[in-house]
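Both lines are retained for reference:
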Amino acid sequence: MKHRKELSILGLGCMRFPKDFKKTEEMVIAAVAEGVNYFDTAYTYGGSEETLGRILAQNDLRDKVNIATKLPAFFCKRYSDFDKYFSRQLDRLKTDHIDYYLIHMLTDAESWKSLCGLGIEGWIKEKKAEGKIKRIGFSFHGGQQDFLKLMDVYDWEFCLIQYNYSDENYQAGVKGLKRAAEKGIPVIIMEPLLGGKLVTGLPTEAVKVLKNAAPDRSPASWGLRWLWNQPEVTVVISGMNSMEQLEDNIRTASESSEGMLTEEERRTFEQVKDVFNRTFKIKCTGCGYCMPCAFGVDIPSCFSCYNTRHAMGWFMGMEQYISSTGGISSVRHYASLCKKCGKCVEKCPQHIEIPKSLDEVKKAMEPIWFKPVLGAARAFLRRV
């Protein structure tokens, strides 16, 4: 298994562990034997921490891997909550330290500042001094501009972002990836295959393009190769739940390196993206020239999610819209915030009628139940 510094380029995502413990154990043991040393879990992944901890302890594997898990910050209402959840995680994982600890689901700088108000910076400093946390980072679920701001509010040691070839401008996107790399921050990639959509949910025409280019290469392998081609990518997490998936991904990882894509492979990706683009309703390239919006609209994210809705289905588009426009955070970036001032139109190199297009997004992505339901969800999280 190839490594970038101390981390294997392939990490194992533990959220989708098989329900069968023995099968999960066999897969984890095989992954470690092949050099996979980054295992990603979270407090809220039901049973995942306990399963991983049990497997590592029973097979004397703890010292061979890096455990990455996440503080459920959305449950933390007071300083003592940090210790409460962290202690439970150490117990579940049967360990005395976490190698890579993340603040789960940060969406913007304001969310981080709220945690600072509870004293999280001092708590992190204490845990690092005790050796209980080796490195501190965050998983991101917001818009690109918010990610760029988050990069500068704390001395982060790594970050976790969603990133894949289907949309380089969603959430942190390629700009966020490069910004983190410029600051020397390792970048861990989640959803490299868009929750499996880039394997089982590809348009028929896109599947044909990939098969014609390399008949024996899986769609998953294509997606991972695209990521590992980029030097800014440190680890790609794959939620593998079978030995077949593990073997395919390890084979791809062993054959991958920075800058490996040939011109022919690059053209193949452009063809596949062209298939996606033909399903897009708004021809936004995500350049960001229209930003910032004086009224808080994250214009590129709104358009990206709307396009995903048409390319990948309603559920995927709505899921992305809720996360990248601040649906459950303290600051919203909805399309409905547009006041039709028109300043963004003057800056758009694609000459998109942005206010009119945002109206389309609003009608499709903000149904009558949208704001009341998310408002109730935010209220619930505040009370938990």
Observations:
- Residues 281-383 form one domain.
- The chain is about 50% helix and 10% strand.
- Residues 263-279 form the longest helix (17 residues).
- Strands lie at 3-4, 7-8, 10-13, 38-40, 66-71, 98-106, 133-140, 158-162, 187-190, 235-238.
